[in-house]
Write a structure and sequence with these properties.
Helix 4 packs across helix 5. The radius of gyration is 44 Å and the shape is flat. The protein is built from nine helices and three strands, in the order H-H-H-H-H-H-H-E-E-E-H-H. Strands 1-3-2 form a three-stranded antiparallel sheet. The chain starts with 9 loop residues before the first helix and ends in a 34-residue tail after the last helix. The chain is mainly alpha-helical.
Length: 379
Amino acid sequence: MTPALPPVSLMDCEPRPGDFRARLPRGVRGIGGGRGFALAGRHRGRRAAALLAAVAVPAFAAPHEWTSLQIGNAEAAAATVEPMPFEQGGLSFPGSAFYYLASDTAPAPDAALDADAHWDSAAAIGPAARTLRAAGSAVDQIRAVTCLTQAIYYEAASEPDAGQRAVAQVVLNRVAHPAYPKTVCGVVYQGSEKSTGCQFSFTCDGALARIPNRLFWLRAEAVARGALAGYVHAPVGLATHYHTIAVHPYWADSLNFIGTIGAHRFYRFDGPAGAPATFNTAAYTGGEPVAAPRPRLADGNAPDLDPVAIERAFAQGHTAASSPPTAGTPVRALAAPAYSAALQARGGDALYTAKALPEASGIRPEYANSGQWISRPGS
């Protein structure tokens, strides 16, 4: 019987990796051998000397420039600050303004101003409108929301919230004014029966054919619902008119300018037409017409919507824009501007009266009173 052999392992047949070691001459080390390292060490000193010479030679050649390496003297006088070119006479273009920093000696915050000082903008805005709440049936309320949303969307879809609320307030101010329809839809679509004269341009320029953007429509609808729920946008006061900043209509100079909100300029009536007592929010009782343009009529059969005619009609005691003053009717006199006591002491309105005009030989009669305050327009 053959005896069993013990199992043979590969480790018993092959030498361990540690048994193979390279035996190199002592002088061969690294790449290039010992001689390469010796040459590199020999040149290191030469390179350092060359670098030191490159730095030191320019410094010794220009000793007067060594001061640039010194630390600044804290006690040295500060450099003179020259004025900017726009602060020097003759270096600014004609008509340009000079701008300077505010003085450190500003007046005290509680310093009293002139007792008679006033701001025309504050007087122009006047009191805020009264709350106008939705009334009538459910159909009336739906139509009112629709028409007011249309006015806000097509007139101020890209405006900020203040601009959209201002447009809504103008519509409601007209509803409360006796010269305009007593319904929201009636105000929005007023003038659409004429070939020209739409009070809101989108009602007759084809804008209604465009499908509104849902996001912007819902935003405008939220503003409309808030206005009909009683919100009053005080910054526009009792404004009844506005126009974009890109145009200047003929009536803009005849009404009181309130201010600019977004891309629109807002105005209110002067005199009795713009008095707070003229606006009656209780007059709104519903009865909203269909939210659509009115059937076209001949221009001669449509009422006159001229804001200047409305203003003059109220000045004469009328309450409707359909009865404008006839030719030759005297127009109410406008009050002269109010001046502070200090300005009155200097002469008041006489300071602005033309006194140094040339002799009449070179002035046409219609220009003889140029520069004087016109207290009666048309005179």
